[in-house]
Amino acid sequence: MRRAQRRREAVQGYLFLAPALLIIGAFHVWPALYVLYMSLFRWDILQGAFLGLRNYQHLLVDPDFLRSLVLTLVYAVGTVPLEMAAGLGLALILHQRLRLRGLFRLLYFLPYVTSQVAVALVWGWVFNPSYGAANGLLAAVGAPIQRWLLEPGGIIAPDAPPSLALTAIMFVTAWYYLGFHAVVFLSGLTSIPTELTDAARIDGAAGFRLFRYITFPLLSPTTYFLLLIATIGATTSFNLIYVMGGGGQAFGCAGNPLGTTQVAALFVFDRFWCQTELGYASAAAFTLGLVVLALSALNGRFFSRRVVYAA
Amino acid sequence: MRRRPARVLLYAGMLGAGLVTAFPFFWMLSTSLKSEAEATSFPPSVFPVEWLFTNYADAWHAAPFGRYFLNSAIMAVGQVGLGLVTSSLAAYALARIRVPGRGIIFAALLATLVIPPEVTLIPNYIAMQRLGWYNTYLALIIPFGASVFNVFLLRQAFLQLPGELYEAAVLDGCGHLRFLLRFAIPLSRPALAIIALLTAIRAWNDFQWPLIVTDSPDLRPIQVGLTIFRSDVSTNFQLLMAGSMMAVLPVVVLFLFTQRQFIQGIARSGIRG
Amino acid sequence: MRRLSLALVAALVLAACSSTAGPGASGGTSGSGTAAPEPAVTITFWHGQSGVLGDRLNELITKFNASHKIQVKGQFQGTYDQLYQKVVSAIQAGSVPDMAMVSGPPQTAQYWKAKALTPAQQFVDSPDGFTSDQLKDFVPALLNDNSLPVSGKSTLVSWPFSKSLALLYYDPDILQQAGVAVPKTWDEFKQALLAVKSKTSATPLAWTPDVYTFFLPYLWSQGGDVLSPDYSKAAFNTPQGLAALQYQADLVLTDKTGQVTQGFEWQNPFAQGKVAFAISTSVSRPYIEQAMPKDHTFKVGMASVPAGPKGAATDLFGNNLVIFSKAPADHQRAAWLFMKWLTDTDQTVAWSLASGYMPLRVSAQNAADFKAAAAKDDRLLVAINALKDAHGIPGSPDWQKIQPVLGDMVTAALLGKSSPKDAITAAEKKVNDILAGQ
């Protein structure tokens, strides 16, 4: 009886999952397997000789690829905590009863809907080495002016990542995703039962203490979720870096200047679409996927224990 | 009274932050009203010297934008509608039903997020050709009809529903589907609103995929339409920005509409009683 | 037998009539042998022209369709890069169009290597093609640009359509202020930049570093080349190559007359009269003119890229057309007939005057419409006069890998990250590795 009921429930569960799994299977899993297949061949435009794991062996000693992995890590570490902390801060403020709350929400969300061309142009202008606002600011305080998006030199040490160009792009990234994080945090805050915070208030908790012991733990599912999504997003990030990182070359492909903004996704794109090494690029994409998955799993092990559900 | 300076500071800070986040948007708006020469002047002017509202009419008439808007709307509505159904069902199953192998399914779903889409373009293109979906609305909607992101977000929301609620509902003879429709979905409105908003924005801003799976302007969406203002050597900035402003307007309206869903607290007590 | 030949004659008459009846159908049939009648098929043509150029191209297609049994469906598929992505995907899926635009010889070489193309040579030699005399009407540099070495023989693989080349742009007002003439040689150019720097407040030179702007023209003008003739080895680590790199590094680092920019950013300051010189493609002019403020307009100066001891040299840009081998034979032939019509004297003049690309044929340069336009604006002739010095981008399928290596070499030297000697040696090694298939 019990077993039959369980089986019935399981069947129902699979039925619930079926539509999503079908679509995700066809348009995410199958292409991923196809990429894996391509990665085992020499594949220029057409499928060539079977190489086994030789593309992967090459990758492990390809200094450009290894550099791109390092840059990816730097990029993720430099953007995810910043955009999440700022997003949470904004969400907390916007969650309060404030005048013009709706207007502020819109203002902070605007980057996320602004055309990417406009984004690249405006920030390109801000960072323009001859006329840009960033150098205007530096000049005003008497600091030496910079080449910003054209500068391959590092901000910590001349030859260590991140380059000034990548740093500028990281800043724009955090700016771009701020509103996204704020909105998702806001929805998380909204779903915290008000009874709990009210009860805590009656017990005398307020301000930081209320946040530290009630709000933040109850927000942890959202935080965890965002961390996971943002980490995956940052480690596979492409568009903004591609658009901003022209790095001076009119005919270059991806990751200028001198490859210092060539994070892993750009490396993959460069080898795939600019150099038409489809097999090699697929191997790089798959390796990147494995690295991201391992990072996410670590992330999950570390944080999932700290997630608290209100229910 | 004591808190007044703090409030002023708070508002000043928020306004400052708002200016930084909104500036490129305002620049887009301002450029959309400038003359060609002014739009490209360097350094740029903040406000147009001459306000050319005619740019909007020029942009609108430069291409069949009515058709492009309609296609974008079909894409967005289709993806949101299908996405809400598939992700609600799947998220509910992962959150509330004892499905054997749930952990593996969850991990497998996660794994699909990590392959950069720049390389899956070719297999997906081949799939569209084989399925006969090339140059149809199906190619524009179905592949985005389920998203791992949405399933995860909604699963988190469903996990936060009070357990007693489900037990009470089961006592009343409520099955999973009815519980999902009657309680889980209405109670997770903030998460659903976010999913709808983000899916719609993604659909509305998509460029590469629609370009690659369609041939005909009859099927192409607004973002592809906007390429009319760009060429390999130059860009017609004021018309591009006027076109982009028109394109972004529905998204802003949608945001204003859905954001109320994130803030309105849910009347839990009403359901418990 | 009798009936067959009668049918043939009837078909020939029909073909002859229909080809003379159409308004733009000059040229007619030629080549060796007799052409078969025009196939009544609809062909698809993937191109990368949007905006005004897209409209002009569509007008040409409409004109062709109105006068021919062949119907052409032109489909815009994004920028050259996006078009390339789509064609590569289509080759994988086996769903290529009948013909497409390519951005240059390296992409053509990629498609050729993938056995995706039917070489234009096959049609040029057919009864639908040209006699060798007729072919002489096409500018040799343009035919070379569309040829690849096929088993040791130079073969036309693609067909020219919208061609432009690199030119020197200058602001005559600033030059006058600085008291310098338009420089004819690289040495004069260097001196002119120094004069602008000392006598005016303008930026002497603004450009976005890449291999095309200075490195290749300078190298060629010294008699050097970038790759060996069979594209098997790097050929640029020579005194000429080093001089080419040193020259531009000196402009930025020593003379401080060169200002490095991103993308097409130099266009706007130039249009506003803040920059004296720039080197860019010949089709940049309308965009510069559009960007001029109303209260400060000037006649954009255009001249050949400066010359070296072995004369002047410049690079060819723009796009060519290809026919895909997977298309049915009658579609391929129809595509060729369309391409041929598109490059007839009348059409090449019309396209050139509408787009700013160069007329492809000597007869077009002498056509009345073009001469009238050139009489009004002598700058139309600058690009044409430079054509004899034009070099195509190397048609190596590996060029896409080589180009970023050379771009990095230039960037490293310009930013002072490495000496020109180190940069060129490192680039040579990388390029040789790429060409050796490493």
Structural overview:
- The complex is a heterotrimer of chains A (311), B (273) and C (438).
- Chain A has helices at 2-38, 54-60, 63-95, 101-113, 116-126, 133-140, 164-190, 194-202, 207-235, 239-244, 264-274, 278-304, and strands at 41-43, 47-50.
- Chain A has 311 residues and is mainly alpha-helical.
- Chain A has a two-stranded antiparallel ribbon.
- With 273 residues, chain B is mostly helical.
- Chain B has helices at 4-31, 36-39, 54-61, 65-96, 102-111, 117-131, 137-141, 148-159, 163-171, 176-187, 189-205, 208-213, 222-225, 237-263, 268-272.
- Chain B is built from 15 helices and no strands.
- Chain C contains 20 helices and 13 strands.
- Chain C has helices spanning 2-21, 51-67, 80-93, 105-113, 120-124, 132-135, 140-145, 172-178, 186-199, 211-221, 239-254, 267-271, 285-290, 329-342, 345-355, 362-365, 368-376, 380-386, 399-414, 420-435; strands at residues 42-47, 71-76, 99-102, 117-118, 147-150, 153-156, 159-170, 203-207, 258-260, 275-281, 301-303, 314-324, 390-391.
- In chain C, helix 2 packs antiparallel against helix 15 (345-355), helix 8 (172-178) packs across helix 9 and helix 19 (399-414) packs antiparallel against helix 20.
- Chain C starts with a helix and ends with a helix.
- In chain C, 53% of the residues are buried.
- The interface between A and B is large, with 94 and 97 residues.
Biggest sheet character of chain A: 2 strands, antiparallel
* Strand order within the widest beta sheet of chain A: 1-2
- Spans of chain C of at least 5 consecutive residues whose pLDDT stays below 50 are 1-32
Kindly name the structural category of chain A. Answer: mainly alpha
**Largest interface, C-beta closer than 8 angstroms, per-chain residues:** A-B, 94 and 97 residues
Large-scale geometry of chain C: globular
Q: Tell me what portion of residues of chain C adopts beta-strand conformation.
A: 15-25%
Mean pLDDT of chain A: 85
Shape of chain A: flat
How large is the count of helical segments of chain A? 12
- Overall mean pLDDT score of chain C? 88
Which H/E pattern describes the elements of chain A? HEEHHHHHHHHHHH
Give the arrangement of secondary structure elements.
The complex is a heterotrimer of chains A (311), B (273) and C (438).
Chain A: H1 2-38, E1 41-43, E2 47-50, H2 54-60, H3 63-95, H4 101-113, H5 116-126, H6 133-140, H7 164-190, H8 194-202, H9 207-235, H10 239-244, H11 264-274, H12 278-304
Antiparallel strand pairs in A: 1-2
Chain B: H1 4-31, H2 36-39, H3 54-61, H4 65-96, H5 102-111, H6 117-131, H7 137-141, H8 148-159, H9 163-171, H10 176-187, H11 189-205, H12 208-213, H13 222-225, H14 237-263, H15 268-272
Helix pairs in contact in B: 3-14, 4-8, 4-11, 11-14
Chain C: H1 2-21, E1 42-47, H2 51-67, E2 71-76, H3 80-93, E3 99-102, H4 105-113, E4 117-118, H5 120-124, H6 132-135, H7 140-145, E5 147-150, E6 153-156, E7 159-170, H8 172-178, H9 186-199, E8 203-207, H10 211-221, H11 239-254, E9 258-260, H12 267-271, E10 275-281, H13 285-290, E11 301-303, E12 314-324, H14 329-342, H15 345-355, H16 362-365, H17 368-376, H18 380-386, E13 390-391, H19 399-414, H20 420-435
Parallel strand pairs in C: 1-2, 1-3, 8-9, 8-10, 12-13
Antiparallel strand pairs in C: 3-12, 4-12, 5-6, 7-10, 7-11, 7-12
Helix pairs in contact in C: 2-15, 8-9, 10-11, 19-20
